[in-house]
Amino acid sequence: MKIYSGGCLCGAIRFAATGPAEKPHTCSCRFCQQHTGAPTAAWVEFPAERLAWAGAKPATWRSSDYSSRAFCPACGSSIGAIDDEPIVALLIGGFDDPSDPALQPQYHSFEDCRPVWLQVETASGEE
Ligand SMILES: [Zn+2]
Ligand SMILES: [Zn+2]
């Protein structure tokens, strides 16, 4: 099985997720925009049991009834979202190889919240 590794800007948090990478997508909802500071966020999901943290564990902030946003308490990097259901969504920008084809977004959530100047090419060829 393929291992997808990555971490935060300062290196305090490292992770290794065992494939397959599930549901790669972009999301332009306000939570994602404010969590990342970016106009859209690119995500990929893994079951929690296929994700191993190395070094420090991310700090979390409760962002909704079912999910917490994870970040590095040392450097502030956004890491992902940890759901109450055993799913962890990781931000693709934190991976060691964000251009891995398996991480290409398949769909765009809350597309109508994105700035009009932002175009995202998904694997389906749809915006
Ligand atoms: Zn860090
Ligand atoms: Zn979102």
Question: How does this model look, in words?
Answer:
It is built from one helix and ten strands, in the order βββαβββββββ. With 127 residues, it is mainly β. The protein has one domain: glutathione-dependent formaldehyde- activating enzyme (gfa) (Alpha-Beta Complex). The strands form two sheets. The protein has a seven-stranded mixed sheet with strand order 6-7-8-9-4-3-10. Strands 1-2-5 form a three-stranded antiparallel sheet, with no helix packed on it. The longest helix has 7 residues, at 30-36. It is globular, with a radius of gyration of 14 Å. InterPro entries: CENP-V/GFA, Mss4-like_sf.
Summarize the structure.
By secondary structure, the protein is mainly beta.
Number of domains: 1
Roughly what percent helix? under 10%
Task: Determine the strand fraction and express it as a percent band.
Answer: 35-45%
Count the E strands.
10
CATH architecture annotation name: Alpha-Beta Complex
Bound molecules: zinc ion
The span between the termini is: 30 Å
Mean pLDDT: 93
Assembly state here?
A: single chain
Q: How many helix segments?
A: 1
Task: Give helix and strand order, one letter per element, not per position.
Answer: EEEHEEEEEEE
Q: Strand order within the widest sheet?
A: 6-7-8-9-4-3-10
Protein name: GFA family protein
Keywords: Lyase, Metal-binding, Zinc
InterPro entries: CENP-V/GFA, Mss4-like_sf
Pfam families: GFA
